[in-house]
Every structure is written in C-alpha cells, then in structure tokens.
Amino acid sequence: MAEAHQAVAFQFTITPEGIDLQLSYQALNQIYLSGVRSWKKRVSRVRNSLIKGVYPASPSSWLFVAIGILATMYMQSDPSMGLITKIQQHLPLRYTTAMSVAKFFKWGQTMVSALVFSTLLWLSLILALRFCLKLLLSYHQWMFEKHGRMSNTTKVWVPLVRLLSSRKPLLYSYQSSLPHLPVPAIQDTVSRYLESVRPLLTDPEFKRMSDLANEFESNLGNRLQRYLKLKALWATNYVSDWWEEYVYLRSRGPIMVNSNYYGMDFLYVTPTSVQAARAGNTITALLLYRRKVNREELKPSRVPGTVIPLCAAQCERMFNTTRTPGVETDVLQHWLDSEFVAVYHRGRYFIEDQIQRILDDASPPLPGEEKLGALTAGDRIPWAQMRKQYFSSGVNKRSLDIIERAAFFVTLDDEEQGMRGDDPEGNLDRYAKSLLHGKCYDRWFDKSFSVVIYKNGKSGLNAEHSWADAPTVAHLWEYTLATDAFQLGYTEDGHCKGDVEPSLPQPQRLVWNIPAEVQAQVSSSLAVAQALADDVDCHVFPFREFGKGRIKKCRVSPDAFIQISLQLAYYRDRGGFCLTYEASMTRLFREGRTETVRSCSNESCAFITEECRRLFQLASERHQNLYRMAMTGAGIDRHLFCLYVVSKYLGVESPFLKEVLSEPWRLSTSQTPVQQMNLFDLKNHPDFISLGGGFGPVADDGYGVSYIIVGEDMVNFHVSSKYSCSQTVSNTVFDFYLVILAILSLNTNLSALNVTVG
C-alpha cells in the first residue's frame, strides 16, 4: 500500500483520564495563512470588479463629478435642470418643531439628492464613454488601408481610440466595450465560398456546386439566417459556444493528437540539466503568471503595433480547468482557485510541494495506477463510463478530484529530449512526438495544459484545445520561459536560487483502488491511443536561410509569403491544389475565437502554375485581404458552420451545407505569434530562441503545419502527417520547397530561372 501524507490540524484520543487533545501548530498556522490569502483574493476581486466595471472611466472620477455638481449648486445654479428637486421630493423628510433642526435636515436632504444625481450622471457618462469606445472598436477599415496611406477617417479615429484607452486597463477592462461578432449577409458568404473553391473544382464540378449554393441561398438559407440573427441579438457571440461544443466537446474520438497541441522549449539551450530545478522554476513561473491573471495585472493583448485590444475571455479558464468526459458530450469544469498542482512520475500521482522528494521516492505504483492516464488518451465514451461507475465515490473520487482541480498537470518524464546527440534533427522530431502524445499514459490530456519536464532538464507542454486557442497558451509559455531563464535563474551548478523552506509539508501521494474492469479498459484505451500515436509522423525544422527581414524588403507580408510557399510545396509534392486552412483570430470581437482563412485562392494558384513575380504580388495581396476579412467577421466557415447547426436543430437537410462541412482540409496551417519579444533579449542572448509548437494532421491524407517567425532571420516549422498515408511524408516536403520559393520570389531574373524538382 502506498503511503498518504496528510497534514492534520489536530488529533484527540479518549482515555480514562479524559480527552487527550493534540494540536499541530504548523497545520493551524497553514490554515490561518490560507484564510488570509482567501480574503485577500476576495478583496482583490471586488476591487478589480469595480475598476473594470467603470472603465474607461475611473472610480475616482465620481468624486470630481460630485464636487462639480455641488460647486454649481453653491453658486446658486441648478445643473440638473430640476432633477435634483424631483429626487428631493421622493426622499423622506423628518419634520420637527425646532426650526434649526428642520433646516439641517432640509440641507442634508438637498446634499443627498445632489449626490444621487451626481451618481446617476456619472453612471450615464460611463455608459456613454463605453458606447463610444465600442463604436470606435467596431471600425475596422484601418486594417484594409495600405501602409503609409491612411484615410482621413482613420486619422481622426486613431487619437479618439487613444484618448478613451489612455487609462491603464486591467486584463478584462475592455470586455464590455468590445463589439459583438456580426452575422455576414448570406449572399456574401455564399459568393465568397464559391470564389474560394473555384481553383479546386473542374468546370462541371463548379457548376454543380454553384447550383447547390444558389438553391440554398434562395430557399433554406434565408430561413436559417433569421434564426442566426436572432441568436446574435441575444448571445454575446453567435459562434463561440456552438464552436466549443460541437467542434471540440462533442467529439467522441481521442483528443490526443486529434485536438491537443504542444509547445516546445528553447531550441539551442537548456537553462539547467537538473530536472527538479527546472521543474521548480517552471512551476513557480506558471504560478506567478496565474497570480497575474487572478489579479488581472496582465496587460490586455492588442493587435501588434496598435492600441486595439483583443478579447481576454480565454484567460479565465487557463488554470484549474479540466475537460471531463461524458457519453454524449464532454464538459469544461473550472474552479476558482487551488493551491497545488498534480504531478506524475514513474506511474505515480502526487500533489506537488517539493519535486525532489517526488523524484527520490522509490515506492512502486499501485496496481493499475501507472497507465491510468491512458483513459484520457483514448475514446471518450469508455472513459466517461469508467469515470461514472468507478470514480464517483471513495478514494478514486478524491484522487481524481485533486487532479481535476489542480492548477495544472506536471509530468516528470524519465526520458531525455531536445536537439542533441549525433542525430539532432531526428531527436528534434522525437521531441515533438513526445510532447504531442508521450507514452499515451504519462500525460493527463483532459487538463487545460500539462507541463512536461524531461530528465535532462528540457521542458514543454501539451494543451487541451476546447477552452482556448494557441495564442493564449503561447502567451503563457513565453512568459514562463522568459521568467524561468532570465528572472528566476539558476546557480552555477544548475540548482534553483534561494534557500529551502524546511517547514514545507511532504508531497501527498494520491491513493487509488483500480479494479480489474478499469484496468482492462485502461489497456483498451491505451491500444487505441498507441495506434494513433504510432501513425503520427512529426518533423520539426528551423529554417535559417532567411526570415521576415528579407521578406519585408520585397514588400510582402511574411505570413502571406509562407502561406503561398506552403501551397507551392504541396502542389509540387502532390501535383494539385487542395483546400487550405489557416487559422485567424476573431478576438477583435467579444468572446471571439478563430476563423478560417481559405489560403488557396485563384491568385495563389495562378502564381504557382506560372511562377511570375507579378502574380506572386497579387497572390500576397489577396491573402492579406482574406486574412483581414476573417479577422473582421467577414469570414466564410464559421457562418456556414452556424447555419448548419441551426439546420440540425430545425431537423432540415441542406445538401449544400452537408457537402461544405464534409470537405477535407488536407493542408491545415497555423502561425504561432510571438507576442512578448520584450521578454527575450535576443541581442545579448541570441541562443534563447523559441521553437514554437505544433499539432497533428486534420485529414488522414493531409498535413498539419505550424510555424513561428522568430526575429528577423529565422522561421521554425512543425509538420505532421500520418505514416498510414503513402502520399504524405513530413520530413522531406516543405523545407526544400520553401527554398525554391525564396529563389522564385527574390531572384531578379525570374524568366530565366528553371527549377527542376527531384
């Protein structure tokens, strides 16, 4: 039996002499400190609610309004135009025979009436300012203007936004001022859809699809659109809740590989090779970030280079969140706070207080405990059934509750990973696969994110996708890496700085009672997960030939450049074009998540087939326009998706929507943005370069491509595909053809260039 270390506040025994009471002053002191921390958090939350509740004004502005009203009244003027008198009439007046006392109460009643009016005026001004800010943030034409050619409207708009955003905001201050995501006109969405699939279809296929689209638009589409507009009037965001439920939570297949994604450590350096030290600093940095989130001290994310805020709603469920399985649909559960993290090491689960004690603990795992995490890696229905039947009471429920309520999950991996040894490229690929799925049982894939600390000190994370998108997790991971390496730091021998607190309690070993039925399901889920993991082909390569610095000299968007190069690579590899997915954020709107940029356009296909510099410029401009339209609510796929959901609720079939929603994304791409370059001193520490992260392929016969543009001279790529498809090979395709596109687009003599593909 494994030992469970419990912190007990008091113990008592009944003896013939009476009750022998034994108090643990250390435990009582921890209880006292816990209560103090809890009340501090409550006070902080109330204070923050007041501050963000009156934004863009400040709580102190009430005092200025009240003083102004009282000053005008002292000057025998009525700024309320009679409203103060009407308020005064509705206040109770205490009558008395003493004239002086009656005058005093009369004066007090006037003061109260003036303060009530001041408060109402102040609240009205706040609502007016908030409405003005929302109108200003609803203006998106600035995104479509060419660099250096600002319209007069935008010139007026910029200082107005700066003026209303001049106060230092909290993390969630802008939430009530963000506009709602608009519902595009159905004819616009259908038209843009047909334009996006034109290069992918033959003339007969395109005519058939056009007929389906026109029939849908003129009949069923208008009916579905009315329901969708009704939802948009009622809901904060007409897409996000359905997107979360039907795309993520209702999926019954494994979330490992298919949904979860990963983030990597620094490419060239590992701050320490001491596993416990790296884990200690990483956990500390993550908890410091959590404190900033809880106190709302993080600066709101903004569109790069602007003062335009982005929605911060995804930060709310970053910590203490778990995706719990259900038979029909999963549920995201979030707890306000907890003072621990769950740690897995060599098949044993702990509450983390001191990492080294866990590493030194030689006790074996309980029967069935070692591979218990495989339940989160396999199909969802068996896990839901096991959870309901065997984890709803007793020690299993208590232990599972601890894992699910933990701030996050930590795996102390017994392997070494990173770009190292005699085969750095191959080891980098194995590093990616390890973060994506590990051994299929040593990660808790249901947690909002799991941190992995390897034996040689390398780190990484695996994130569950339903609660948030990659930019939110990337922001967290950037802060963690920078804080770990540059603020917390390590001693010369690789240990954490500072002294050990001797009074810390022992780590608590979780206790399980895993019956044979659960162990059988663990083996079954592990077999499903292992087959999926073995089929994934991951390739990571740092592209050093050039970066965004050289691309910008061509007056081309770096993202457009990379997207077109990926399409060129796919075309040369497969001999044709495919439906291409690029993720774009819609966080300009409240509770916005993502939209699809259909990167494969008529212009990009024309360039790829003709290899002409002029066509490359046109393709780049077209891609930028598609990206901006997706960001500003004029995308295609989320609108069609919601129309499809409405049709299912109404019980009607649409051949057009059914075909659109079943089209495979054989090239699924995403850029990981670098959001906090100020945290990394690449000039003095050029080796501290982030590798970014990646995800599994969306289609069985397609590619998943993630990339991160680091500095001016480097782009890191993560490519995934499946071994079971003989037509896809991750490690030989995109790196070669990116160099080809560099030559095609940057060479001054394109007409004389002849590229031979081997």
TrEMBL record:
Native source species: Maylandia zebra (zebra mbuna)
The record's InterPro entries line, in alphabetical order, gives: Carn_acyl_trans, CAT-like_dom_sf, Cho/carn_acyl_trans, Cho/carn_acyl_trans_2, CPT_N
The name on file for this protein is carnitine O-palmitoyltransferase
- Specify the protein's topology with respect to the membrane: Multi-pass membrane protein
Instruction: Please give a single GO biological process term from the UniProt record.
Output: fatty acid beta-oxidation
**Active site positions:** 465 (proton acceptor)
Q: Which residues form the Choline/carnitine acyltransferase domain?
A: 181-730
Q: In which pathway does it act?
A: Lipid metabolism; fatty acid beta-oxidation
Its lineage opens with: Eukaryota, Metazoa, Chordata, Craniata, Vertebrata
One MF term in GO for this entry?
A: carnitine O-palmitoyltransferase activity
Subcellular localization is given as:
Mitochondrion outer membrane
